[in-house]
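[Discussion] Sanity-checking designs against the backbone

I'm trying to build intuition for which residues belong where. Below is a structure token string of 443 positions. I'd appreciate it if someone posts a full sequence so I can compare it with mine line by line.
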């Protein structure tokens, strides 16, 4: 949080405050990295080869890519998915009522749609262009059969698209940003990220611009009727939120059982908020930590909701706190008491890289760590050892060979995000430079 209020001050520690940078500064850092990349041809047409066939991970390599227990099943370049900028960002997935699996692949100039066939082959189906201009930031989440897409592009708003339109596609289609949308919500223009809280049919846009009036905090939109999204509330007390996970709480803190709780990653703190009443959300705690540089994202670890993993996006590059050696550092938080979360330890990756998004499924954290790719980390030991000493990497796929010679670099290149929720076990990995990878963990 960048702004303290009397209401939350009592429950707040400010260890990280002085160290953190603002989103504006972080965006500049990334854009500088990508400008150098662009100059060097990283986004040029035909810079990367199409993949002729799936390549299993054997003896630490799947074709050009370093790996361990993760097979490269299929791959499509950004240029093969209709992008003319050929630069990727976020990714999400959708499963139809009959079990067909689809991916939404973010690119600076739009969202490409793919189907992942039973044998793992990715098929390009078409794309929804950006609503306004191109932007490096495009983010999407799915609730039910609808996808909600936001972007940092000026005046973009929220695109609402019915994924069922993909069920009958036989040749790739460029969808219309007017007639093919179920709705377009314009209560905000640009946003940095989109959070979904399916249980309450709420989309939370975060990092919205000043005209949206939420100070970049949770801008909550009721999407019970996807054709008619309505603003339901705003959390501005903690200032800018970069990302969040919102759940109907079933954890150990009895005071909040059944409430809708958001864990917000607020640039230099973890903020925990009760958003049950959208019209007046309540901040329960705001907690900093040693090494805080840019508190970016995180995810609950266990069904019991006792532990949470948090990633800081700038501690590696800035060599701060536990990330001084630049190995990707994940912070472990005991959230048993929502009013007093405890930072109990850290986990460090064997590789040097910055961390971005991670999602925990069945005790495995799927970390998208920029230059070191997808890292699959077994975190089940947290139940008995909250220090993180028992955490082990169990598989990886490194989609960015350019930095392999130095065991990685703390730069904003390579992976943006992954989607590890398909019942088939296929994992999508969206690379900034190359395209979409379909992977399979074999451990
Ligand atoms: C995957 O399945 C599709 C559809 O049945 C088929 O056309 C394709 O050749 C298969 N690919 C591989 C690598 O087996």
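Best answer:
Here's mine. Compare freely.
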């Amino acid at each position: 949080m960048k702004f303290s209020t009397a209401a939350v001050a009592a429950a707040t520690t400010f260890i990280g405050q002085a160290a953190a940078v603002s989103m504006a500064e972080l965006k500049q850092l990334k854009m500088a990295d990508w400008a150098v990349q662009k100059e060097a041809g990283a986004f040029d047409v035909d810079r990367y080869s199409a993949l002729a066939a799936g390549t299993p991970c054997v003896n630490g390599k799947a074709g050009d890519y370093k790996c361990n227990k993760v097979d490269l099943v299929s791959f499509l370049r950004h240029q093969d998915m209709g992008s003319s900028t050929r630069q990727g960002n976020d990714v999400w997935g959708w499963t139809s009522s009959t079990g067909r699996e689809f991916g939404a692949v973010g690119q600076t100039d739009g969202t490409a749609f793919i189907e992942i066939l039973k044998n793992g082959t990715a098929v390009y189906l078409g794309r929804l262009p950006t609503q306004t201009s191109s932007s490096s930031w495009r983010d999407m989440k799915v609730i039910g059969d609808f996808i909600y897409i936001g972007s940092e592009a000026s005046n973009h708003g929220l695109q609402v698209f019915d994924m069922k339109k993909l069920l009958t596609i036989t040749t790739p289609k460029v969808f219309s940003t007017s007639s093919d949308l179920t709705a377009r919500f314009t209560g905000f223009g640009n946003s940095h990220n989109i959070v979904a809280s399916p249980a309450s049919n709420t989309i939370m846009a975060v990092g919205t611009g000043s005209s949206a009036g939420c100070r970049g905090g949770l801008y909550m939109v009721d999407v019970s009727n996807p054709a008619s999204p309505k603003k339901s509330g705003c959390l501005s007390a903690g200032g800018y939120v970069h990302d969040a996970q919102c759940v109907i709480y079933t954890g150990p803190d009895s005071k909040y059982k059944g409430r809708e709780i958001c864990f917000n990653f607020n640039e230099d703190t973890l903020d925990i908020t009760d958003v049950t009443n959208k019209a007046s959300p309540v901040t329960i705690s705001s907690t900093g930590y040693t090494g805080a540089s840019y508190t970016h994202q995180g995810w609950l670890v266990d069904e019991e909701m006792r532990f949470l993993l948090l990633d800081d996006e700038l501690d590696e590059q800035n060599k701060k706190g536990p990330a001084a050696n630049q190995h990707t550092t994940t912070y472990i938080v005991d959230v048993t008491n929502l009013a007093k979360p405890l930072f109990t330890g850290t986990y460090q990756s064997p590789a040097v890289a910055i961390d971005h998004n991670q999602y925990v499924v069945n005790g495995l954290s799927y970390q998208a760590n920029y230059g070191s790719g997808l890292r699959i980390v077994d975190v089940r030991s947290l139940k008995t050892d909250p220090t993180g000493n028992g955490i082990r990497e169990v598989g990886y796929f490194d989609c960015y060979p350019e930095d392999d010679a130095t065991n990685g670099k703390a730069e904003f290149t390579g992976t943006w995000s992954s989607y590890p929720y398909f019942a088939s076990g296929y994992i999508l990995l969206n690379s900034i430079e190359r395209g979409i990878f379909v992977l399979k963990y074999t451990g």
